[in-house]
């Protein structure tokens, strides 16, 4: 082999490839180093957590609800700083605003536009921050978790993490990170109107007119058996169902009870006095968090309050709730008494009748108890009479043939 030609000619193909590979690696390293210096030095981990219960994904788990605020269900952030991007004397501060840019000194110095939550000087490449949701609410002018704003819609939240050498300067984009995936919603939707209550067996049938709020997701029913006098005059009691007829729901001035069917007539629908009040269910106020609803439905205009005791008079209020569970303020109240209903339909079924039943056999939503409307009772009565006549004919036919 002629080694002279090798010395003055190009190196073998394999060696040329290795040389190019090394050159490419050095160029990539130099480029990466430049990108690191020119890029962001502050970053937020995507694994933001809560200190308490986390709602499912469909219910915006990182939003702030009224319950989150009251129970200190705070946000947990992991912040990373690029190696060599900070020095002794630097600080990392946390700021909150609704709309303004807290990287600007003028906004941080303004009254209320930006609120500082925390500042640290013991910096490291990885830092953990707990941002209290109550402080976020206060920064957005909602102290004590009470939002005075007129809108029930969610409000935007911006949380800034700023690396600063001096508190007097604006902060560049590369020395800051901003979290905007959290919103604050402390207010539930407006309540329904025209609440009326009808009686069922161990339950009350609740009907109302829906509010116009777009964020209404459903309705909670609240029941209180400790009735008190209401200064403004309460709604009339719901008419009790008689032994065959259903009582009518009382209106604001007390509705008359429905006419009785095959049995006794319905009870009086209420006299419209001021006795339909409650010390714990207050119209226009958000229900206390300790209250357990006696019923719940979606975006419907009727539902039932269940698990009640027959013969006991209950005050009933309705509060709408949104998609993260915030209850709105309480509606006007209505009163009713659950009663044991032995309707003609029940007697007919006990005698072996098969007609009726199902959704159409109740007045109100699915599962509305044993509350039978009068027209349906008449229809069932006719079916029962026809069955009884056919049974008599079948029984009489053998006797006629025997004596014929």
TrEMBL record:
Transmembrane region(s): 371-388
Keywords of this entry: Membrane, Transmembrane, Transmembrane helix
Bias (Gly residues): 233-264
Chain positions covered by the region annotation Disordered: 233-279
Domain of life from the UniProt record: Bacteria
Protein name: Secreted protein
UniProt source species: Sorangium cellulosum (Polyangium cellulosum)
